[in-house]
Each structure stands twice: as C-alpha cells, then as structure tokens.
Prior knowledge:
- The structure holds 2 protein chains of 2 kinds.
- Chain A is of the alpha+beta class.
- Chain A has helices at about 15-45, 65-70, 85-90, 115-120, 145-155, 190-195, 250, 300; strands at about 100-105, 110-115, 125-130, 135-145, 160-165, 185-190, 200-205, 210, 220, 235-240, 275-280, 290.
- In chain A, about 20% of the residues lie in helices and about 20% in strands.
- The longest helix of chain A is centred in the first third of the chain and has 27 residues, at about 15-45.
- By secondary structure, chain B is mainly α.
- Chain B has one domain (about 5-170).
- Chain B is globular, with a radius of gyration of 20 Å.
Amino acid sequence: xxxxxxxxxxxxxxxxxxxxxxxxxxxxxxxxxxxxxxxxxxxxxxxxxxxxxxxxxxxxxxxxxxxxxxxxxxxxxxxxxxxxxxxxxxxxxxxxxxxxxxxxxxxxxxxxxxxxxxxxxxxxxxxxxxxxxxxxxxxxxxxxxxxxxxxxxxxxxxxxxxxxxxxxxxxxxxxxxxxxxxxxxxxxxxxxxxxxxxxxxxxxxxxxxxxxxxxxxxxxxxxxxxxxxxxxxxxxxxxxxxxxxxxxxxxxxxxxxxxxxxxxxxxxxxxxxxxxxxxxxxxxxxxxxxxxxxxxxxxxxxxxxxxxxxxxxx
Amino acid sequence: xxxxxxxxxxxxxxxxxxxxxxxxxxxxxxxxxxxxxxxxxxxxxxxxxxxxxxxxxxxxxxxxxxxxxxxxxxxxxxxxxxxxxxxxxxxxxxxxxxxxxxxxxxxxxxxxxxxxxxxxxxxxxxxxxxxxxxxxxxxxxxxxxxxxxxxxxxxxxxxxxxxxxxxxxxxxxxxxxxxxxxxxxxxxxxxxxxxxxxxxxxxxxxxxxxxxxxxxxxx
Lengths: 314, 219
C-alpha cells in the first residue's frame, strides 16, 4: 500500500483568503436571495394564475392571513348567514362568462365582458388590511386594478356624483336570496371622489390566484379604509348616479350601518365597540388589535372627509 | 318503578357523561387546531349554545312530567341546571380570558357599548345563586324560600334569549327557535297552574276556593 507522506499543493492552487471569504459571502447572499424569492410563494396558491404578479407599493407589510382562513370565513348572505356554510355553498356559482352592465351618468354605457375589462386594466397585487364591522380583521393579498382608472374609461358625465354597484341576483344558485334577510340584490356605493381614490380597487384574484367564489368571484370591490360590507361581491352592474345610492345594509339598519362605513374606533356600532379587532390567525391567547382610524389608511384618505362629522356620517 | 336505585345511578352517570361530550368535542378540536378561522368565536358561541340548550332541557323536565304523568324526568333537573351553569361559566370564561385577554380597559370599553353583553352578565348572575344553592343541604336550609329563589331560572331563560336576540346582526332564525321552545315550555307550566286553580275551585274547599277566585278576577 502506497502512503503518500506529504501532499503537495502548489501555492497557486491555494485559494486566496479574500476570495474564499468573498465566495462565502456570495453563497450566503445567494441563499438569502433564493429564500426571499421563495417567501412570497408561500402565501400564494401553488402555480396560481397570478403567481408572478407585481406587488404594488401601496401594499401593507403586515403579516398575511393564512389563505385557508381567508377562504373559509366569509360573510356572503346571498348564500348563507353562516360564514362556513356560505364558503361551501358558493361553489355552485358559475363565474364565466361574466358581463358587467355600465349605466347611468356615463358617455359609454353598455354591457362589457369581464375579459375585456381585465384586458384594459392590468392587475397587480395589493396587500391590504380588511376590517369587518363585526370586529375581526385579516390581511389579504388581493389581485386587482384601480377602480378609478377603470371608471375614467367609461367617461362619467359631470352629473355623476356617486357610483353604485350591484351583486348578481340568482336565487336558484344564491340560495340565501330566497330569504328576506337583506333586500336583494345587494347594492353598495361610493362617492365619486372615494371611487377615484387610488387605494380603491376592483379585485379579481387573491393569494396569487383567481378569487374563490366565496370571496366574491369573479369581480369584487375592495375599499380598505371602510368596513368589509362596503366591498361588494360578484358585481354585475355599475351605475353612475347623481344621488346617493340606497345601499343594502344601510336600508336594513340605517341606525347601525351608514353609507360611509369608514373604519373608526371612535364611533362604536350601536350594539358593540369598534375599538378593537380580532386578527384572524393570531394565537387564541393573543390580545385583540387596537383598531386604527380609517383602518390605518388615514394618511391617504382622511382628507376626503375633512369637512365631515364622522360620528354623524358614520 | 322499573328501575331500582342502582339502575338510576348508572343512568345518571350515563347522562352526566353525555352532557360532557360537547365540552370535550370543543376542547379537543381546540388542541387539534380544528376550530376554524376564528377559534375564540367558535369556543365562545359553542359554549353559549350549549348553556342555552341545557337551560331548555332543564326547563323541559317538569312539562314532560306534567304531560306524561311520569315523575322520572324531574330526577335530572338539578344535573341539567348545573350543566347549563357549567357551559355558561365556560362561555363567560372564554369571553373574559381569551376575547378580552383579561384586560380591564377592554372590559369597561366593550360592556357599556354592548347591551347584549349586559344581558348575558345578568343571566349569569341569575344562574350563579341557583348553582350555589343546588345541594340538598342548601335546599333544606332555605326551606320554602328555596323554591321561590329557584323560580329565577325563568327570568334567566328570558334574559338569555334577550342576550341572543340582541347580539344577532340580521338573521334571527337561531334565537327564534330557542324563543319558541322556551315559550312552549313556560306555557305548559302556566296552563298547568291555571288548571290546578280551576280544580281547586271545583273541589270547593271554601277557604282555598275563595282565595283563588279573587285571584282570577284580579287577573
């Protein structure tokens, strides 16, 4: 057996210490890079339709709610007043083909195919806080486009002071509409300046994929500084109006649900406090989160309401 | 009677175990993280529902006795009442410990803004003395006042319903079901008392009959 008593290494073969260290740094940097590249994927559905979408700088940095929680806890009274049941019942809805009727004070009324709307309005990811009037909240990566940009394309006339949205009415499938819990179809609305605000979006997806039916597929409104019930689902009609739309929850309980419905810890619901919110997905021993005025978007939107008494126009 | 004392002890143990099942179901679902997106709400509503159910079961036993003429249902009255109190205690505990995180600031902010929480607290305060005086020795010590005290269970049933109706956002189906059940159970009792009065008048016990008749007129 031959045993080499001495291993000869030529000096040119020895890696320079500086190079060695820089390589270690490179590996370290590369591993961090690849890890961070993987991170957003965790929050997204595997190979979803919008898996490689650009994230808007208007996104919050708050921890994203688990997708499983966001898709199983939905207020969708068109199907059921029970959050888990509505999540299951909504599966029966067909969302393609889908048209949106645009009418009222506009120069371009008509029926528009959703595909055409999506073609004309490029989508991006917006991670927003979502605060329900029932004092729970989550953080959702929506996929959508700015509402205002789309509305401009319909050329609203000078008479257009408000924009009204209507949900699909189909009691054969939306079985909750067979009971008169709310006045059907569900109607929501925004003042034009609210609708034009860059934070207001129409969403068609979430978690890097298309919207699950229970979350309002194929097209829903998201107004992050307002209570969740403003963010109307399965939109089939958009109407520009001169007068304030009569909205579903406002009609059902005018003393409890206002037209504006801005998140505001200082103005309690007549039957419960709005000071705190239960963040879905947090530990059961974690205290509730202190609710922020305008859901934390005050810097951007407070000026819309500067001359208004928010306790009166709740 | 078909069953002897030992049989009844076994049956009682069986009913006791069955009554604990909802607790274990929720408890183990909690350990397995199977309580859904809002686990505190699932626990809170779950215990609240069972408190109301056991209150209804407890209130149903005397009407069952009235209707069937069987006396055995009454044997379970104390146990059912105590289970109503047990689930009401868990309901309150989840609210105070998990929902409010024992924060006094949160408590004094939320309770005055929520009349339904007040109705819930009143219900609990009505049930508490009944649970504390539920033992046989307490029953003896209180004598005839014991029955008078324990009539406050009817008030508790009503404040529990108020609590439920007041918290619902829009769909009153669930509290309505309980309201119908409680109304039926109280009606059977009221009707029974009314019939007893009639028969006592017919029995022509001069002293009693006189008294009851005046009662009837004044109503």
